[in-house]
Amino acid sequence: MKRFDYLTPVGFMLGMLILTVGVISGAGLSGFYSFIDVTSFFIVTGGLFAAVFMSFSPKDLKKAPAVLKQVFVSEDDDIRDLVKTFVILSEQARKQGILSLDANIGEMKDPFLKKGLLLAIDGWDEETIRNVMNSEIAAMEERHRKGRRIFEKAGEFAPAWGMIGTLVGLVMMLKNLNKPETLGPNMAVALLTTLYGSLLSNMLFIPIAAKLEEKTEAEIFKKQVMIEGIIGVQSGRNPRNLESQLVVFSSKEEWRKKQAENVKGKAHEA
């Protein structure tokens, strides 16, 4: 079930609150306004958006709002419930035959699970099912990577444009050394662009990219559990044995350990 992920806005607001309190406690309320500069903000954001627009296609950029929306959505994935589903399917397949699962397909809400079961019902062998499903995961991971890359690149561009703004401010300051009244504003532009670039990168874009990556890992993990469950049902494995095997996946740490062991095993065989 999908629900609002409150940690995303809470984390952002907490970071801004700590920053604001730190500035006010050091410079006072009047000094806080000296950290607001429209010129610096436009140099950083204008350069940032220009760089992003040049780096990606219109098709990729149109998907950015939908990708960003995922940061505010959390989905409860109880692996134990998924394990119970496969135990029930396994019992049915052993008693009534795997073709009897065709009646359950309409109840499946997850397209990935539905596709895997259809392959099993159609009589495809274990290797084919695994290859097809893993290809689906690889395609999904690539789609997610492309959507996440916009925010990763924005996190790289923001500090760079902050430094460019700093150079602009320093040039303006050095060209007007004979005008003392301009030194302060030009120095403010020079320093605040760096500040704004770092803030946008480390408080917005990089955390968003990290959250998206974590969601992708969680989805891959869930789909890997489905693959093992589908293979277990297709091969006619004993429901209790299948449950014991899949319960290992209730812990992501155990799953990662199992994956690492498989990789080491393949490397040893090679």
Description:
The chain has 9 helices and 2 strands. The two termini are 43 Å apart. With 270 residues, it is mainly alpha-helical. The protein has helices at residues 7-32, 38-55, 58-69, 79-96, 111-121, 126-175, 180-234, 239-247, 252-269, and strands spanning 2-4, 73-75. The model has no long low-confidence stretch (mean pLDDT 85). It is 80% helix and 2% strand. A two-stranded antiparallel sheet has the order 1-2. It has one domain (37-269).
Tell me the layout of helices and strands.
Elements: E1 2-4, H1 7-32, H2 38-55, H3 58-69, E2 73-75, H4 79-96, H5 111-121, H6 126-175, H7 180-234, H8 239-247, H9 252-269
Antiparallel strand pairs: 1-2
Quick take:
The protein is an all-alpha fold.
In the sheet with the most strands, the strands line up as 1-2
- Rg (CA only): 26 Å
Helices and strands, in N-to-C order? EHHHEHHHHHH
Our count of domains comes out at 1
Question: For the terminal residues, how far apart are their CA atoms?
Answer: 43 Å
Sum up the overall morphology in one term: elongated
Largest sheet: 2 strands, antiparallel
